[in-house]
Amino acid sequence: MTETEIAPLLRFFKALAHESRLRLLGFLAQRARTVQELASLLGLTEPTTSHHLGLLREAGLVTLRVEGNLHWYNFEPSELAPLAKSVLSRQNVAHWAAQARAEKPDRQIQNYLESDGRLRLIPASRKKRYPVLVWLAAHFDLDRRYREAEVNQILQTRYWDSATLRRELVGYRMLTREKGIYWRLPEEEWLTSEPLTR
Amino acid sequence: MTETEIAPLLRFFKALAHESRLRLLGFLAQRARTVQELASLLGLTEPTTSHHLGLLREAGLVTLRVEGNLHWYNFEPSELAPLAKSVLSRQNVAHWAAQARAEKPDRQIQNYLESDGRLRLIPASRKKRYPVLVWLAAHFDLDRRYREAEVNQILQTRYWDSATLRRELVGYRMLTREKGIYWRLPEEEWLTSEPLTR
DNA sequence: AAGCTAATTAGACACGTATCTAATTAGATG
DNA sequence: CATCTAATTAGATACGTGTCTAATTAGCTT
Q1: pTM, whole model, 2 decimals?
Q2: A32, B10, B66, B117: which could form a disulfide with A72 (CB 3.0–4.6 Å)?
Q3: Domain enclosing residue B173, as ranges
Q4: How many CA atoms are closer than 13 Å to the CA of A31, on its beta-carbon side?
Q5: What does each C-alpha distance from A37 to A58, A73, B6, B23, B42 come to in angstroms?
Q6: Which of A31, A54, A81 is a domain's end point?
Q7: Which residues sit close to strand D, CB under 7 Å?
Q8: Residue B13 counted as domain residue
Q9: Which pLDDT value is given to residue A1?
């Protein structure tokens, strides 16, 4: 579960997300060049060119060698190129989601979760099932009303059998329902012992 | 000499050059999701989310499966992922320079050019040297003045011995000089026979 | 030191695009 | 058919950034 920092990645892609900079890299990949030369090749002014080169440098795509008055830029991706190569695998991309408003699951229920955060199965014992339901209840806002379809959809992001989960949540009074509309109840209202399953 | 079209590449990088879209890919890499769900995960409105998903789709990074009212997006890079992986080699990047104001070299002088467009050597015979000089003359604008250092720098992008090239160009009256300032002459003024080398 | 050159930095402006609300489309439901 | 829901499209606004000119810095030359 690598904690991937997306900032450098973003810097990297932003650096490549402009035609002028792609063309700059193009010319630099041929040979090292000075700012003047690049500016005239691109048909831009030197300050503008300098600006782009700065971004490419921050992204680790080019290097700079100063030689008297001349600044020679060269295409020399630091360790980032392999990064870029490996970056698009499903596994890695999954980490970019990172700063989701993380209701981070309790350690107690880790054994029941897939690595993608979905529920592997509903624990059979009440003792283990309870924290799972607490975690699921946190998926709902206190001050909001939900239609049954919405409840199901939210639960389905965690487990295929949303109906069972929904009934359990209502059973423990974590959710309640009236005329087909559901809402979350505050913790004070929750039952902590086995509810009547009726 | 692959003619690389940079447009799709640009679309690709632009699609990845925004934090919301990186995070979208993050969530989609976990499992397929609907627009609603993604919007609430990102804390954005549905139209905005839809907008981002559109860009990701155009870039070939995600697919869409419509199921009744629901639109399920999924992380499924088309053939583009390998593209992205192979894209950063020096060789490939070099092609991005493409649409330089292309004074494309005459077929006659191809034998004297390296694959990177630099001059291998100055042809010894006048007959072969002449088209090379024509090509070099095209590197200068008609309505501009150049300092000698500028002339040298431009010529050095093509060959190490800029001094010889400069003298040749002046000899054929393709360039002329006065008080250290050079400029290009129109073709009518050029000499076509061997100039006096004085 | 004075002047010249290459490059960067500062500041202003313009263009692109991320975002929202409102309106529209298309599928499902009663 | 009328209504409801999910998604997209249209239109407006705001933020980010690409570009320019002007000013500044740093190195070389005389």
Answers
A1: 0.56
A2: A32
A3: 100-189
A4: 12
A5: 21, 11, 22, 38, 44
A6: A81
A7: A 14, 17-18, 20, 44-45, 47-48, 51-52, 55, 68-69, 147, 149-150, 153; B 34-36, 46-47, 49-51, 53-54, 64, 69-71
A8: yes
A9: 37
pLDDT value, residue A194: 56
HEC readout, chain A: CCCCCHHHHHHHHHHHCCHHHHHHHHHHHHCCEEHHHHHHHHCCCHHHHHHHHHHHHHCCCEEEEEECCEEEEEECCCCHHHHHHHCCCHHHHHHHHCCCCCCCCCHHHHHHECCCCCECCCCCCHHHHHHHHHHHHCCCCCCCEEEHHHHHHHHHCCCCCHHHHHHHHHHCCCEEEECCEEEECCHHHCCCCCCCCC
Q: pLDDT band at residue A102, thresholds of 50, 70 and 90? A: very low
User: What CATH number does the domain containing A12 carry?
Assistant: 1.10.10.10
Residue nearest to nucleotide C4 (CA to C1'): A69
d(CA B135, CA B146): 18
Cα separation, A46 vs B73, whole angstroms: 43
What is the count of structural domains for chain A? 2
Average pLDDT for residues A122-148, to the nearest whole number? 74
